[in-house]
From TrEMBL:
This is Pectinesterase. Pfam families: Pectinesterase. Its EC number is 3.1.1.11. Transmembrane segments: none annotated. PROSITE patterns: PECTINESTERASE_2. Residues 1-25 form the signal peptide. It comes from the Bacteria. PANTHER family: ACYL-COA THIOESTER HYDROLASE YBHC-RELATED, PECTINESTERASE 53-RELATED. The active site is at D183. The lineage of its organism: Bacteria, Pseudomonadati, Bacteroidota, Bacteroidia, Bacteroidales. Belongs to the pectinesterase family. Pathway: Glycan metabolism; pectin degradation; 2-dehydro-3-deoxy-D-gluconate from pectin: step 1/5. Residues 33-308 form the Pectinesterase catalytic domain.
Length: 322
């Protein structure tokens, strides 16, 4: 029988532990992660998947989210960067929760289903939903990060569905569906909505921008289609959550539910002196601007040309062209 010395045994144990450590690290820091509710992926929830993404990466990580209903409040922390979250199917890959502002005096800003604090993140083919009853503000998407892109996603909710929550941040929504009741797109960020469907579920207001005075571009809607639920017939394009709210609609199709006045001053005539609202080239029954409020800006072709330039839209603090 071979004699095993203490020294030999220690060397063996150390080698084994180092091997396990290396294997564990290799498994932990993957460049592709699979999330699946049925347990067939690397993680069963998106919250768990955050542990498998290294902080402040200089490489791209792809998180593939399999079809399923993920009932969880998800926070993508500020150290998360360079990540693509890709759903298997937009209709059936659903992140959902049901908090609203009147649960234990929660308030609007803690009701989110998905909160994005990280930057340089892309989302594709996902449904993000707050399915709380109509008992108060209920945010589905809350963003605080910069350079966020949403492609072919759905945002479902009622009041305050999408909160673009940090000034000086830039967002791009492409081919998305956004629904809600009151102020369902709101906040201070600069955001471009292109080829999106904006669906009103009740007579109320679509946007409530709070663009800071020093930032030139707030919300820009281009080539979007504005639709409404049956019976909805008096919807405003926006009202200013803060005095210098900036929102423009360019080449959009406005349904008959858009009221003739178009815009509202939020019960404060002083906002009419500062709010930056404009339209250009819109079509549809709600696009007739004959009876629009007198304090909106009439864009010229030269003005509109600026909105074709990504550098102009997103020049806030650094070059970014999504």
């Amino acid at each position: 029988m071979m004699k095993v010395t203490v020294k030999t045994l220690c060397c063996f144990v150390m080698t084994l532990l180092c091997g396990i450590g290396s294997l564990s690290a290799a498994q932990q820091w993957k460049d592709t992660i699979v999330v699946a509710r049925d347990g067939t992926g690397d993680y069963r929830t998106l919250t768990e998947a955050m542990e498998g993404i290294r902080a402040f990466m200089d490489y791209k990580v792809t998180v593939l989210v399999k079809k399923g209903v993920y009932k969880e409040k998800v926070v993508l922390p500020s150290w998360l960067e360079n990540v693509d979250f890709i759903g298997e199917n937009v209709e059936n890959t659903i992140i959902t929760y049901d908090d609203h502002a009147n649960i234990n005096k929660m308030g609007t800003f803690r009701t989110y289903t998905l909160k994005v604090e990280g930057s340089s993140i892309t989302f594709r083919n996902l449904t993000i939903e707050n399915n709380a009853a109509r008992l108060g503000q209920a945010v589905a998407l809350h963003t605080e990060g910069d350079r966020l892109v949403f492609i072919n996603c759905r945002f479902l909710g009622n009041q305050d569905t999408v909160y673009t929550g940090a000034k000086g941040t830039r967002l791009y929504f492409l081919n998305c569906y956004i629904e809600g009741t009151t102020d369902f797109i709101f906040g201070p960020s600069t955001a471009l909505f292109k080829d999106c469907i904006i669906h009103s579920k009740s007579n109320s207001y679509i946007t409530a921008a709070s663009t800071p005075k020093e930032i030139e571009v707030g919300y820009v809607f281009k080539n979007c289609r504005l639709t409404a639920a049956p019976g909805v017939d008096k919807v405003y394009l926006g009202r200013p959550w803060r005095p210098y709210a900036a929102t423009v609609f360019i080449n959009c199709e406005l349904g008959r539910h858009i009221c003739p006045a178009g815009w509202n001053n939020w019960r404060n005539p002083e906002n009419e002196k500062t709010a930056r609202y404009a339209e250009f080239g819109n079509t549809g029954e709600g696009a007739d601007d004959t009876n629009r409020v007198k304090w909106i800006k009439r864009l010229t072709q030269k003005d509109v040309a600026k909105y074709e330039d990504m550098s102009y839209l997103f020049k806030i603090c650094s070059e970014w062209k999504p």
